[in-house]
Amino acid sequence: xxxxxxxxxxxxxxxxDRFNRLASLGLDRWWRRVTIQRIPPHDAGALLDVATxxxxxxxxxxxxxxxxTRIEGLDFSPQMLAFAREKASRVGLKDRIQLTxxxxxxxxxxxxxxxWLTNAFAMxxxxxxxxxxxxxMARVLTPGGQVLILEFSRPTWxxxxxxxxxxxxxxxxxxxxxxTGETIPFHYLRDSxxxxxxxxxxxxxxxxxxxxxxxATPLTWGTVILYQGRKT
Length: 232
Fold this sequence. Notes:
Strand content: 15-25%
CATH topology: Rossmann fold
Distance between the termini: 27 Å
Helix content: 40-55%
Largest sheet: 7 strands, mixed
Low-confidence stretches: none
Shape: globular
Order of helices and strands: HHHEHEHEEHEHHHEE
Structural class: alpha/beta
Radius of gyration: 17 Å
Mean pLDDT: 91
């Protein structure tokens, strides 16, 4: 991600969780829960949440999968991480989750460190370096380790696609402006959603990065896709 995008997320950090709740009508919590439920409840592996933001997915993993022996969250935004640390401390999970500042294109971990890798809504921000990012994800996974990626998509059902397109183009920037007084950051978020790969293209990219048994599960009429793959 570029320094400009980093500055954008530093700017959004204080209102990011509230924006997500309102913009998704509260569904973002359910999408994350569906993701964590893909991890077997007795799996004693290690998990890395890339682009953890304010720590929502990492905190949920710590709550719902106490069997995990190690949970780490990595993000390039120091302001987002500050909020993640405060939230983890508030819910009594400060010592359970390690939070690190870093970049998805160069993960600061040895090969084969993690058995699970999660990511929520960040792949579209690294489109120009997508293969590099996915290659890094594969590198730090153990053989047989799995990746779980949430990302926005465009529904295939015509009615849902029309409603979703209008919402993303017009309502999303207005909601962001109402919450923050800013407009440009939410135009960027809108454009990143509309410009991301379709599910079939992203599954192909996952395979090319070294993942097998890849699958895409549509959520909420296909507005969000949960991607899953196994390191070969």
